Amino acid sequence: ALFMENARKGSIVSRANSIGSTSASSVPNTDDEDSDYHQEPYKESYKDQRRRAHTQAERKRRDAIKKGYDDLQAIVPTCEQQDFSIGSPKLSKAIVLQKTIDYIQFLHKEKKKQEEEVSTLRKDVMALKIMKVNYEQIVKAHQNNPNEGKDQVSDEMKFNVFQGIMDSLFESFNASISVTSFQELSACVFSWIEEHCKPQTLRDIVIGVLHQLKSQLY
């Protein structure tokens, strides 16, 4: 009886073990699989890599453009921003570019104007140097010949020559100029200058005045 009882208990235990092993084998091993799944790194596809690189490049390009416009607004005086605290609108990119172009054109004009002024000043300096040399020669000649120049023309004679030239010019001016209106006066002045103030005409006037004064003296 004892042997039969032990055999029965052993049979029950073996059947329980077989049922447990069968149940255990039918349930998936989630712990091992989850651990293996999390340990395996995610592999980014080539398409995703290209998309990410393109996004980064586009962001850099936009940042560079924005920095360029910000630099232009800081450099160009006409692009100075107003006080945003009072609700002033921000300058658009088109306005920034147009103001930059206008400022560059203004700088070109100023540069050309300065170059012309420098050229004029250089000519003046050259003329002054020539005059300086001539005056030095005159002073040197006068020092070598102190008696020279005593028979020079008097101031009265110089005034008479000047008066004769001005009288002759005023006669033609008075005969040619109309003073009915300022417009007519302006137009007549330019036409009179072109006609009566030519070098040859002035030369003839001066020669005539000198001959007249010579006849009065002698």
TrEMBL record:
Entry keyword annotation includes Ribosomal protein: no
InterPro entries named in the record: bHLH_dom (IPR011598), HLH_DNA-bd_sf (IPR036638), Max-like/E-box_TFs (IPR052207)
GO BP, sorted A to Z: positive regulation of transcription by RNA polymerase II
Molecular function terms, GO-annotated: DNA-binding transcription factor activity, RNA polymerase II-specific; protein dimerization activity; RNA polymerase II cis-regulatory region sequence-specific DNA binding; RNA polymerase II-specific DNA-binding transcription factor binding
Cross-referenced CDD domains: bHLHzip_Mlx (cd19687)
Residue ranges of the region described as Disordered: 1-64
Domain BHLH: 49-107
One of the Pfam families matching this protein, by short name: HLH
Polar residues bias locations: 14-29
Extent of Basic and acidic residues compositional bias: 36-48, 55-64
Superkingdom classification of source: Eukaryota
Subcellular localization, as worded in the UniProt entry: Cytoplasm; Nucleus
Principal subcellular localization: cytoplasm
Keywords in alphabetical order: Activator, Coiled coil, Cytoplasm, DNA-binding, Nucleus, Phosphoprotein, Repressor, Transcription, Transcription regulation
Coiled coil location: 104-131
Function in brief: Transcription regulator. Forms a sequence-specific DNA-binding protein complex with MAD1, MAD4, MNT, WBSCR14 and MLXIP which recognizes the core sequence 5'-CACGTG-3'. The TCFL4-MAD1, TCFL4-MAD4, TCFL4-WBSCR14 complexes are transcriptional repressors. Plays a role in transcriptional activation of glycolytic target genes. Involved in glucose-responsive gene regulation.
Subunit structure, interactors included: Efficient DNA binding requires dimerization with another bHLH protein. Binds DNA as a heterodimer with MAD1, MAD4, MNT, WBSCR14 and MLXIP. Can also bind DNA as a homodimer.
Protein known as: Max-like protein X
Name of the coding gene: Mlx
